[in-house]
Input
Amino acid sequence: MRLPVRFFRLTSRPLLSALAAAALVGTSACSGTLDVGDPLPAAPPGPVATTPTPAPTTPVIPPPTPADTYAWQWINPSVTGVHFRAVQVLSPSERYFVGDGGTVVHELAGKATVIRQGSRDEALSALWVGSANDIWVGGAKGAGGILVHWDGKRWSESYPLAATKPIDAIQGRPGGGIFLAVGGYGTYMHPSGATSATCTALYGVRDVWVQSANEVWFVGDEGIAKQTMPNEVCVKVDSRPSYGVWGDGTRLLVASVTTTGQTEVVEKAGESFVRLGAPIGGLQAPFSVRRGKTVVADGAGNPVVLLHSDRPVESDSYAVFDSQKGSFRVQDLRAAEAIFGLGAGGRELAMVGVRGLHGTFRDGIPVSTELRNRLSMGLPASDGSIYSNCSNYGVDVSVTRMCQLVDGRWERLPELTGYHSAAAVAGSKDSLWLGGFAFPISGSRTDYYALRWDGATWTRGPEETAYMMRPLYASSANDVWAWSDYKTLHYDGKSWSVRASGGPGTGGFRAADGLGADDVWLVDTASGLSHWDGTSLRHVTSLPAGNHGSELRHSVVADRGGVWMMATISPSEGPYVQFERLIHWNGTKWTLVDLPGVTPRALSRGPDGVIRMVAGGDYVSPVGGTTATSVWTVSDAGVQKELDLPLGVDLLDIFSTKDAVYAIGEGGATLRFAKVAPANGTR
Output
């Protein structure tokens, strides 16, 4: 079981700084930040693009590289794991979406391509696409704002209007020019870049909709306002606080908030607005987070509104108006941040959100999207197969869900209800062992038998596997070791046998790693470090004073005559505060490794011989994210940052196969560090 990492260093940062969450940029294979645009998956068969894809300011494709260059690549979600905040659909097969790090993505026929990458402090949350040669994006940049335009040749951002105030919404006007929600007001900007016609009749503007060439609607904290063109007169017409507006030239829908804090959807009828259905209780309007479009209509013309619940930001809901019943039905959707109706093809919505979520949903069911589960424990096998614990702990600890990585996508195995896994190891694609206990615990030994996945079904292990809780180690499917209940157990591919009993520290081991079946290091929370040589178990040394062995699976890495490991510190005096540190046993003595303000989460030795560490930084008040995660290289000379992750991409584990390193985490985030082919296609 992976225990939650504890954070105790707090920092106070402005909301806008948190909004401008970091993104993955750069091209270095060994340092800096991840190039989110390389490599991209091959496009599936589909329609030919009718409009050219804009070229990025900074090339996404890297220059030619040596044949043996290693680089970090996104596996899941596809393209990138940054936080997306706005989406616009041009057709059922083509859409654009934008998000943190100034990221702009064009998706066509199922293939998504990064077409712009900005700076780390850019959080784009507004988008309008007039054509492939007329794209406007905006949002926050640091403590100010940003407005960027693509004209078919280059990205331009020299617009003083957005220098100090974030852009909340953008809509284009037929014939040229755009309307913006900026600085609390609605503003019109001419094609020349000059601004005029600020709507002073309404403050706290959050969304804008161009209903026609001569009719524009603003909604915000003070109500609803209409601006007519070309005389540019703006008049407040309703006082209900509102946060979303959408129209189709005939209908106009507004998402508002009642005096009791409920959400209601109203439709313009003549000179007034009429409520559709009863107010929606138990859910909140998304005022607390800057978002993209939050009210649209689905393909059947039914109003759809995105709502924010009182649960974590990863759990949002949306309500669909049922025209037959005259009421709204609420459906849960994790990680949603913005919606856009496809306008055809039934009750379909395009949605984007937290940790790279982008896909199409029909009646709340994803039509095409990646696994979003929490990946907390990677299990590599000697044949290259990869499993992971994808249980969402904190929701139901009595249900174990395991997943397998198949062709770059995670697939769920049949879940185990009433079983909690405390240890696991993969020997091959058809040999996965779990050690744990059943719910409820009756006291019978039958509650503690190990389980095996043989590629098709789960089966219970023999009597020898009773109390096989932790840890486990496998060099192959026919060479699996377990230490439990004061015994050393071995599986030869056919049966389990006891290889040794008793010995120093047995019964309390929490983590293990080895360089082979005859070179395994084990950590006991009480007695310290022990070594298994294939025949006997020998106690080597106690842990430094005040240290306890970590219970995290990948907290120990075997290293030529010694180990690198994470240890939990419990001060003997003062408040009871535990935190993780990194220590090294070189065969003679322990050394404390200085960490620059980060907390280690997992360790792994890669196929390139480098030891890497996934670490979390100081706690950050999140807007669509949790903590700043990073990947570090570890050596006797100290630690060095290799990869920055954006806020919201929260890694929990790192592990290695014979040819790659994988890092996994919240929301299904999966990255791979492996050899990449030269950009010119030669080896």
Remarks:
- Residues 1-65, 618-626 have pLDDT under 50 and may be disordered.
- The radius of gyration is 27 Å.
